[in-house]
Amino acid sequence: MVTRFAPAPTGYLHLGHVANALYVWNDARARAGHVLLRIEDHDKERCRPEHEVALLEDLEWLGFHADAPLVRQSERGALYAEAAAQLDRQGLLYGCTCSRRILNPPSSIPHPPSSPYPGTCREAGHGLTDDVGWRVRLPDDEIRFDDQWCGPQVQVPAQQCGDLLIRDRKGNWTYQFVATVDDHLQGITDVIRGLDLLDSTGRQILLGRLIGRLTPATFAHHPLIMKSATQKLSKSDGDTGIRDLRAAGWTRDRVLREAATRSGQPFPL
Questions:
Q1: E strand map for the chain
Q2: How far apart are CA 262 and CA 269, in angstroms?
Q3: CB of 6 within 8 A of CB of 179?
Q4: pLDDT (tens digit per residue) in 67-111
Q5: How confident is the model at residue 264 (pLDDT cuts 50, 70, 90)?
Q6: Residue 27 to residue 1: CA distance in whole angstroms
């Protein structure tokens, strides 16, 4: 059993991240598995070095120790380029000039759901240049998997999201792509993450199949710590971080106990 904890350094760790870390490390230790630490810093615009320093300090303080040296996605560009080349050799990639604003116009609804990509550039003949997005043609496959928390699932990624963007117009590899490539190349057997990523699973299984992963990982999507009935804790909303709790005098055990209690997990680690 090999699993991973994969934070993005776009803000400071909060109790939701601690809850996920507890799920990951508790399951790995119970099954004599290994935990890999992966820094998901693929987005050059949003990730900050000071946030990586802070999250590593917080993980050390909390006692979460990985079983291998950490990996940074920002240092794995050649691996992602090769995986993209695999897709291109199969005739699955095309250039896309559509902007996010065009595809998802401003809305008065907070956090509106994204619409499936309508295929605007699918037959436009744009090359894979540095100034366009790169999309992968997704087949209409039905993906079935048994989530360890949520039970049997059926997803059709082509209907959920349309052709998947794997590299944006600024040259950033996208989360869906790099997470899939890394889980494949790092031999991740178990993906343990929050319920908000359940809808990503089918497209990652399908994308993994297209780059050569025939046997997907096992997935478990656990409940989230919520700050309201409809809103999860969020770095982008400035929710209280672990560094703030430490500054306020919280002990390691208090932080772990709070995260465990609010996520329905046993304590201690």
A1: 2-5, 34-39, 71-72, 93-96, 133-136, 143-147, 151-155, 164-167, 190-194, 218-222
A2: 15
A3: yes
A4: 999 999 999 999 999 999 999 999 999 999 998 766 765 444 444
A5: confident
A6: 10
